[in-house]
Amino acid sequence: MTRDELGVDPDELYGRLKAYEGRTAASGGTGRDPVNEPMIRHWCEAMGDTNPAYPGIAPPTMLQAWTMGGLAGHPGGSARSEAYDELLALLDDAGCASVVATDCEQEYLRPLRPGDQVTFDAVIESVSPRKTTKLGTGYFVTTRMNVRAGDGEDGDGGELVGTHRFRILKYAPARPKTKAKPEPKPASETNREPEPTADRPRRPRPVINRDNAGFWEGVARHQLLIQRCLDCGAPRFPWLPGCGGCGSQRWEAVEASGAGTVFSYVVMHHPPFPAFDPPYAVGLIELAEGVRMVSGITGVPYDKVRIGMPVELEFLRVDEELELPVFRGAEA
Amino acid sequence: MTVRTGDELPPLRIPITRTLIVAGALASRDYQDVHHDAEAAREKGSPDIFMNILTTNGLVGRYITDHFGPRARLRKVAIRLGAPNYPGDEMVLTGEVTSVAEGTAEVAVIGRNGIGHHVTGKVTVRLPSDVRATADVRATADVPAAADIPTTDIPATADAR
């Protein structure tokens, strides 16, 4: 039996989780309020939805909202089944205490109108094998809910008005939780460098030796230095003792202008490295001086990087002791 | 209005404000603290509050009905979430008609934000009866037929609810 980082035997746990497939997730649920105009109006205001069909009918995408317990919960107690509670508790105990919704698939059979009283029940449709995602390691749990509506008086549960398949990831976060960070990372800034913390591994250090020390001294002064052969004049990068063209060992350091273009690039999705936050783009940058260097690309979402894109040198402070030359792209 | 396979919907830009995130969470009766309490969100490992899936679902639905009009009816909305919508970002929804059959269109929707793809999804929508639907792009694309002139207001016919 192999125990993993979650401290449990994944196969044994998966077997126990899988046994919940097909069992009831919720039964006999009743909407907290009948479908009503004020809630529809609040929804439309929040979404900026000015469709004149509302509130005569409810926006179909409100389907799940009618089943929610809200802040106080359903007055008669949750419709959630013991089986579903047990499944979630098993995952909590295995360290997968965090939850995030990943998928929502809804089908609408007829519109809901003010006055409709919603009832619902749900089944545990599937539990995935253990998955490692960007957020962490855990299990996807899929439930499928049937939503019915009637006039609120009949006992037969009413007419099926919609189905709602919902998938959550129950997971153990990849990074240890830290106390409130002073600054949230601005989402509008792309390829930003996550703040290194005591819990977060730092990027690998560069290997500095006699042959390349001059390059790193330049970086410290915010200069990107390349070499130029004093005999044949050929520029070269990365730093080497001799010229690849004529073999001469005589050279000088020249400051690059910082202008370049993306000659090629890759987008790193997998595997994740401890100090990096995939997906991110790594470029092969052709400098205006004619040499190429591998470097990070900033300022452009990873999926907007293109061959031929002009880029401009900047220096990225990675942590308190490391600064790196990177290239900021200009989006087309 | 004519709907053809391959049609691209005009993009809808949605600024992701704290107000939108909180209003959407409460309108969907989702009181999970990560959708309204930045401090609590950070303690759970998120850099800030983020949009809940119900709001994303609502925005995708709105994007489709804004385009096809108030008499279009959503039949299916299936979405998958990726990069979270944090305050200060902007989401740009784009859509492409992937198939048209029997008065019903399927639209592939993508919502991009500053980090990546927030949402990818597929929406099935029943088109109003006066909308001409054709699966063949080439048959009509070059012909400026009268049917290509968009209807600018809602016809007086009864709403086919």
UniProtKB/TrEMBL annotation, chain A:
<feature type="region of interest" description="Disordered">
    <location>
        <begin position="172"/>
        <end position="209"/>
    </location>
</feature>
<dbReference type="InterPro" id="IPR022002">
    <property type="entry name" value="ChsH2_Znr"/>
</dbReference>
<dbReference type="InterPro" id="IPR029069">
    <property type="entry name" value="HotDog_dom_sf"/>
</dbReference>
<feature type="domain" description="ChsH2 C-terminal OB-fold">
    <location>
        <begin position="254"/>
        <end position="315"/>
    </location>
</feature>
<dbReference type="Pfam" id="PF12172">
    <property type="entry name" value="zf-ChsH2"/>
</dbReference>
<dbReference type="InterPro" id="IPR012340">
    <property type="entry name" value="NA-bd_OB-fold"/>
</dbReference>
<feature type="compositionally biased region" description="Basic and acidic residues">
    <location>
        <begin position="180"/>
        <end position="201"/>
    </location>
</feature>
<dbReference type="InterPro" id="IPR002878">
    <property type="entry name" value="ChsH2_C"/>
</dbReference>
<feature type="domain" description="FAS1-like dehydratase">
    <location>
        <begin position="30"/>
        <end position="153"/>
    </location>
</feature>
<feature type="domain" description="ChsH2 rubredoxin-like zinc ribbon">
    <location>
        <begin position="216"/>
        <end position="252"/>
    </location>
</feature>
<dbReference type="Pfam" id="PF01796">
    <property type="entry name" value="OB_ChsH2_C"/>
</dbReference>
<dbReference type="Pfam" id="PF13452">
    <property type="entry name" value="FAS1_DH_region"/>
</dbReference>
<dbReference type="InterPro" id="IPR039569">
    <property type="entry name" value="FAS1-like_DH_region"/>
</dbReference>
<protein>
    <submittedName>
        <fullName>OB-fold domain-containing protein</fullName>
    </submittedName>
</protein>
<dbReference type="InterPro" id="IPR052513">
    <property type="entry name" value="Thioester_dehydratase-like"/>
</dbReference>
From TrEMBL, chain B:
<dbReference type="Pfam" id="PF01575">
    <property type="entry name" value="MaoC_dehydratas"/>
</dbReference>
<comment type="similarity">
    <text>Belongs to the enoyl-CoA hydratase/isomerase family.</text>
</comment>
<dbReference type="InterPro" id="IPR002539">
    <property type="entry name" value="MaoC-like_dom"/>
</dbReference>
<dbReference type="InterPro" id="IPR029069">
    <property type="entry name" value="HotDog_dom_sf"/>
</dbReference>
<protein>
    <submittedName>
        <fullName>MaoC family dehydratase</fullName>
    </submittedName>
</protein>
<feature type="domain" description="MaoC-like">
    <location>
        <begin position="12"/>
        <end position="113"/>
    </location>
</feature>
